[in-house]
Amino acid sequence: HELTHAVIYGLAPRHVPAWLHEGLASYFEPEDAASAAARLRRARIGVIPIEALDGGFGRLTAPQALLAYTQSLVMADVLMQRIGPRMGIFLQSLDRGQSLEHSLQTFDWSSARFTGEVAARIK
Predict the structure, then answer these.
(1) pLDDT digits (tens, 9 = 90+) for 61-86
(2) What is residue 27's predicted lDDT score, i.e. its pLDDT?
(3) Which of 34, 70, 96, 107 is most buried per CB count within 10 Å?
(4) Could you tell me which residues come within 8 angstroms of residue 96 by beta carbon, excluding any fewer than 6 positions away?
(5) What is d(CA 16, CA 22) in angstroms, rounded to the nearest whole number?
(6) CA atoms of 28 and 84, how far apart (whole Å)
(7) Positions in the chain whose pLDDT score sits under 50
(8) Is 3 exposed, middle or buried (0-12, 13-18, 19+ CB in 10 A)?
(9) From the CB of residue 41, how many other CB atoms can be counted at a distance below 10 Å?
(10) 26 to each of 5, 87, 96, how far by Cα in Å?
(11) What is the pTM of this model?
């Protein structure tokens, strides 16, 4: 987990949102993204807006943080399925201050399609 954080900081020390840091760290533990999605379905909270997960999770209650970490894993899994070995390029785009939308467009994708795929996994 912490090694993944270190690698991310090495590639992109700025502007990587908390959900992506935590999601990738969980992804490479490895956590099971399908089980995470099932936990979110059972919680029946819907999709937490990405903007709410951009900052750290320290301000959240323990149950909220658990859901934030869980959704972050699902989001990272969706990205890995689409971007895979090009994740470094994506991270470096964010590091340069590019928006999520702009960074996803590099891969012929949009934030709307990304969040749609996340929602489909959770529902």
Answers:
(1) 999 999 999 999 999 999 999 999 99
(2) 96
(3) 70
(4) 15
(5) 10
(6) 12
(7) none
(8) exposed
(9) 13
(10) 10, 15, 24
(11) 0.93
Which pair of tokens denotes residue 63?
């149950």
**Alpha-carbon gap, residue 123 to 117, rounded angstroms:** 10
Rounded CA separation 31/103 (Å): 25
Locus of tokens 């301000």: 59
Tell me, what's the pLDDT at 44? 87
**Counting beta carbons within 10 angstroms of the beta carbon of residue 67, is it exposed (0 to 12), middle (13 to 18) or buried (19 or more)?**
buried
Residue type, 35: S
Place of tokens 């996803």: 104
30 CA to centre of own chain: 14
The DSSP result for the chain, as a single string, is -HHHHHHHHHH--SS--HHHHHHHHHHTTT--HHHHHHHHHHHT--PPPHHHHSS-STTS-HHHHHHHHHHHHHHHHHHHHHHGGGHHHHHHHHHTT--HHHHHHTTT--HHHHHHHHHHHH-
